[in-house]
Amino acid sequence: MEAVAYASFTSFATKSLPFSSLSQSSIINLHQNCHKNTLKSRSPRKLVICASSGSSSGSVVTLLDYGAGNVRSLRNAIRYLGFEIEDVRTPEDILNADRLIFPGVGAFASAMDVLTKTGMAEALCTYIKNDRPFLGICLGLQLLFESSEENGPVNGLGLIPGVVGRFNSSNGYRVPHIGWNALQVAKDSEILDDVGDHHVYFVHSYRAMPSDDNKEWVSSTCNYGDDFVASIRRGNVHAVQFHPEKSGDVGLSVLRRFLNPKSQGTKKSTQGKASKLAKRVIACLDVRANDKGDLVVTKGDQYDVREHTKENEVRNLGKPVELAGQYYKDGADEVSFLNITGFRDFPLGDLLMLQVLRHTSENVFVPLTVGGGIRDFTDANGRYYSSLEVASEYFRSGADKISIGSDAVYAAEEYIKTKVKTGKSSLEQISKVYGNQAVVVSIDPRRVYVKVPNDVQFKTIRVTKPGPNGEEYAWYQCTVNGGREGRPIGAYELAKVVEELGAGEILLNCIDCDGQGKGFDIDLIKLISDAVSIPVIASSGAGAVEHFSEVFMKTNASAALAAGIFHRKEVPIQSVKEQLLKEGIEVRI
After folding, report:
1. Mean pLDDT, rounded, of the chain
2. What residues pair up with 559 in beta bridges, in sequence order?
3. Catalytic residue among 286, 407, 505, 512
4. Is pLDDT above 60 for 54?
5. DSSP character for 43?
6. Among residues 31, 177, 243, 547, which one is catalytic?
7. Is residue 65 among the annotated active site residues?
8. How many CB atoms lie within 10 A of CB 38?
9. Could you tell me if 296 and 314 are in contact, meaning their C-beta atoms sit under 8 angstroms apart?
């Protein structure tokens, strides 16, 4: 994954406090002070591993939480399955664990630096050498290998032969690898017995490759340009590149089999159709306070969220936590919250959206994105919060990704003007600390028709449908402040710049299509999805199941998002997926 700060390891070396007690400045300081491990040629450690004997009895699992990204979701999944959690505070806690889970997103070098300095690396190796029940997740798998090319080369724990390298984006595959992909199980993996032909959720830019030297470890692979290691298993030692806590019921089954393998019966035969990376269907919830101060899900008509009645009240389509839970049951691949109120006068800890995230993540085990108001601000008490602090609180409360809108536009304009990456924008700071896979840039453009392409300095296209005066060309002007203010930058130019500044994904809206139900703006989505190498989410305009198949067949969009048609139950999520399957488009079922 991309760069991230692993702050909680500093607590092992200082006060033995869990990560939640650390300040945001500790996270940033650790990230800035991390030193790269110098790579030295060496053979992987020899392991003597006996046959699996299953995990010990009891309902407690030990968690090695180094504070990177959203570990709340994993905690919730473990508790959902009926297990209690003990946090690692010292290396001895690792050695004394009955079951150990080592989750992670972020930078290989930073993790190894703190693991080594705190004595955790040696404890981990000893624990694994003794064939103790272990589950590594994402970076928790990668660190088991000899080294990584990420900001390196950098030494790993050296337990498995192989080098972790970056995906190759030159062959047309988008990096990061984000979404639901299929596994090819290579051998009896035990914890994957219930996965079958179903999709699991990946989000990463780096991967380990299978080889003759590590084939005894590899239990499954996944294809994304090339086959990479999706999971390893040897004795009681397991690790997965995907996120089981974000892979729905299938992912929960992986965790359940690790936590309590003796409770499982014979291997279940599961049915599915997973063969490759699926197109994602995302449910979006625009959340704001109504005139009574209650948080409600609403939906705009070209960004206007008030009813056209005498009362002019905020359109109320339901409660956010309940709707998110329903969409998870209905098969949404992700749930996205857009906070369109802002809550600028609230101290950060009291933000109502944080409560929404915390409650939602207790029962929704697919990725959660939150956007709106992620910028520097000062509350009514005079307390200043940086955008990084705001984002960090969202991550700790259950968000997997944050979405940045207006702030990204301002950062892009400044970069175009100066050609200098200051590292001070919210986009750059959050991407640097939490990784580009955790940062979505939301683009809100409006179509501007022109008679000839060279009428403006921005990228123009020949539109499928001529403008009101017969214009054959248009450019897409970016807006800020909820679409109320146009800016001197086009969607094409913004997309190219934010990718360079650290965005891992683009949420592409269209003010002209919003709430119209006439379909996505295919011209716009094709323009942007062809221009960048990161995933693009199509948004605005869906009104029928055919609109989803159209956008996937005519553009390179990785996902499609809708709101109103789901809230009003006009088009069920399951109907969308059935339509996509009919058209031969891969989806998660």
Report:
1. 86
2. 280, 537
3. 286
4. no
5. P
6. 243
7. no
8. 9
9. yes
